[in-house]
Amino acid sequence: MTSPLRTGLIGAGIGPSLSPALHEREARELGLECRYERFDLDVLGLGPADVGGLLARTRDEGLAGVNVTHPVKQAVIAHLDELSADAAAIGAVNTVVFSGGRAVGHNTDWSGFRDGLRDGLPDAARTRVVLLGAGGAGAAVAHALLRLEVGTVAVLDTDAARARALAADLVARAGPGRAEGHPATAAAVVLAGADGLVHATPVGMAAHPGLPLPAELLRPDLWVADVVYRPLETELLRRARERGCRTLDGGRMAVGQAAEAFRLFTGLDPDPARMRRHLLELVGPGREGSRVA
Ligand code: NAD
Questions:
Q1: How far is the CA of 282 from the centre of ligand 1 (A)?
Q2: Crossing angle, helix 136-147 and helix 160-174, to 10 degrees?
Q3: Which tens digit of pLDDT belongs to each residue from 215-258?
Q4: Cα–Cα distance list, 21 to 40, 72, 86, 94, 255 (Å)
Q5: Cα–Cα distance between 212 and 234 in angstroms, integer?
Q6: Whose CA is nearest to atom 39 of ligand 1?
Q7: 115-128: per-residue pLDDT in tens?
Q8: CATH number of 110-249
Q9: Is pTM beyond 0.90 here?
Q10: CATH code for 5-107?
């Protein structure tokens, strides 16, 4: 009997993570036995500074690779032998693959969002897109939007300096005019001429309920994507649909990042549609909603 392929997740407070279920079920579907383990800094009594030691432990124990999440997506970079070009551009890693004794960092959050938008809203207009939230998820989404050839990404954040810093970084990578940074108070003006809105703040999660901007700003011709996926139907998506907008839930990005990480760990081709059906089972019956793209 062969031993299972081992992978896992390093982060803090990761008990509720859906990744073990998503990865292990998809492996089974493909005839592979996989054990996806949690390395929870909180449970282990460790802090972000211990990520290097924990990474070495997972490599020495023979794991094929690990996902990395809050609060060590940046801190892990100092402990890698190699970084993919996309992860270097974004400045964050969510997937580390151990190969030939080397630890190679990737970012599949951005490609997860890209694939989700392509699959869920394939004909979405992309001349001008507003991105609300310039944190870790926002940086990955912004990278995806540039790779999808969005003309201009207008970044908004309550922390205006953060929005401007991300926009400056995007312009440095993609060229003049490809990004702008604004305070969140400029939402009405900035959204007026936009094709789409991507929401990448924690507002709408169970712990941060509510709307991140006034519902009156959601016009029927605006598409609206959320990165929050617990709940799958956020207040923002519900209100956007009521106002006639086409929507994309955060489960698309969650499945996309998991599928690409799975491919990197196993070398196998996962089925993202099957993984999405599994995610919808996991986040609760009746959540999908026929109008959620
Ligand atoms: P973060 O803390 O790094 O960044 C959040 C940013 O939002 C901050 O810059 C903050 O100033 C800003 N912000 C907060 N409230 C705001 C508001 N009302 N208006 C404008 N800006 C506001 O957080 P993060 O790691 O980027 O995570 C954000 C969300 O993305 C979380 O809910 C997380 O669960 C989700 N996420 C989803 C996926 C996925 O696969 N779907 C992947 C990563 C993160």
A1: 22
A2: 30
A3: 999 999 999 999 999 999 999 999 999 999 999 999 999 999 99
A4: 16, 22, 27, 17, 12
A5: 11
A6: 254
A7: 999 999 999 999 99
A8: 3.40.50.720
A9: yes
A10: 3.40.50.10860
